[in-house]
Amino acid sequence: MMPVINRELSMLAFNERVLAQCELPWVPALERLRYLTIVSSNLDEFFEVRIAEQKDRLQELQSSDSVEAAVLNNDLLEIADRARALVVHKYQLLNTQILPSLRDAGIDLVSGVDLTPEQRRWARATFAREIAPVLTPIGLDPAHPFPSVANKGLHFIVELKSKRSVGKTSIAIVKVPRSLPRLFEIKSKTSNGRRSFILLTTLIETELARLFPGREVVSDSQFRVTRDSDLWVDEQEMTNLRHALAGELRRRPYGRAVRLEINADCSESVMTLLTQHFKLEPHEVYRVDGPVNLARLAALAEATEHPELRFAPFTPGPSLPEVTDDRLFADLRQRDVLLHHPYQSFEPVVQFLRTAVADPSVIAIKQTIYRTGSKSVLMDLLLEAVRLGKEVTVVLELQARFDEETNINWADKLEQAGAQVVFGLVGLKTHAKMLMVLRKEGNAIRTYTHIGTGNYNPSTARFYTDFGLLTANAEIGKDVAAIFHHLTSLSQPPKLKHLWWAPHTMKLNLLAAIRAEARAAKAGKPALIMAKINALTDEAVMAALCEASQAGVRIELIVRGACCLRPDVDESTKNIHVRSIVGRFLEHSRIYYFENGGKPNVYISSADWMSRNLDRRVEVATPILDGPLRARVIDEGLHVALRDNSQAWRLERSGAYRLLRPPGKQKPVVAQYQLADKLGLGAHNSEAA
User: Rounded to the nearest 5°, which phi and psi values hold at 178?
Assistant: First the structure.
């Protein structure tokens, strides 16, 4: 039986590794706060998507009286216990380490009990002027039912009693509008150089009584409900995906409740009222020792300067040698260009598109878009290309989770400008990262292509690690053109020469490559598989890796997030080693390496080794055909990561992760710092080394 780890538990383990960054001595205080907010945002999505999906599955199993229902229910209880421990640890770090370290640096996040008389006067005036006018308390009675509570909306639940008569308490709900800022700076004449901030929730709580004249506040608690946020559309029945998604987006805030967060001191009676109203089980309630939404504390990090409390500034290096716009296409005809973000700038990708837009010889541009952001220089360039009369085709994925509205807006703008916009294939998300330029040169049309592992988003390219290839290789260009033709015309899937693509050939080729290494090992030949991916969950791929391990293939996996394959267990995974790197940058690149009898095959890809990527998405993997560039991918993407002994975590056979430390007097190696030194121009914090 294949040794596997529960996917949800593995996802929580990743967030535990992120949270552990808050305890590393070389991580500056504001960066620790940033890691804390990242974990909070990750947990929101974990409940909105993964737990919501498992709850739906449990309901289906229970309705069919399946014996698997009890197993899944026990899994959900175990997941809840693990998530609760993570949440407790998160608030302990906030209250005992992060906020005290900020106070030591002159940054105060003030609680209600700590307000000085001067600050209390400021709070009272600010509440009356800026907050109270937009609050609408709702007292619950038959004429005032429980108000609608949107996904992740912030609310107070208040117990009240009359000041004049003795009787039972009543309940009121106070919705905190999203339009209000979540953080205020307290201006003071006696600050002595310190900066004091207060959360909106603290301001409201200190002044709650003013909302209920003639009543006494017996107790109050913040609460926040997380709901199922996955969108569902029947692609077989609908006639317009964009309109169907727009309708679903309006319903998303009110999906099924999956988690309730309340203050630790919330009374049992109030908690019972909330759990019954939202139809939640006791294990789905999370009591917290502080604000219920720690993700909002990102505003505190953004509001303060203090460069000494942040990572040292880092400036990406160029793709050397730099090429002027007028020489760009001529240079690409001579050589491929490999980009490694964020160590190298994303600017060459922008330059590639900008040059294509301005070049009168360029007749057409085609691009896939998954996540690009609400403001995008690349999308603006595509709009400009349309205005200049070029043929622009955009395969835009409307169902990129939580970016649906942004992508719908871009689709509208592109179509209004005159671009050809398509939304991929029914039932498949288009996750491939491809940009193709068609240029008239003499009597022929030459293809120039960019294929990457990450999104066309210059903002995230500053802190996501990704590879990109710029090439004028005619055969790769022909493969890319064939995929675009298939996506737009609904023609039969083409046969490609170099590219692997999902859901058609990628999984078959991947499994074949793994099995080829197993055959080589059995024949006594060199055999090695290395991969850097974000997640490993596909059962067929894991089974093939187990067979290769049993055959004697050494398998080195660098998996940032969820890894469901348990390493070093008997014969099946004894040759499999798994590590995860968590650092300043988000490890996002996907690299596949196969020894291939001493002539390594190396691919960069948009696809993780997950069933959703290999079976239900349009994905692309391109080989790195140029020898020196292939050597760079192997070294920068794999070998450096495998040498890391300071920010790498090793997955043990128990399923736990262990942070590696340099043995004996061995020099510390931090992969991200080494690459920053090698490829970047700016400084970095190297305290870990």
Answer: -65, -20
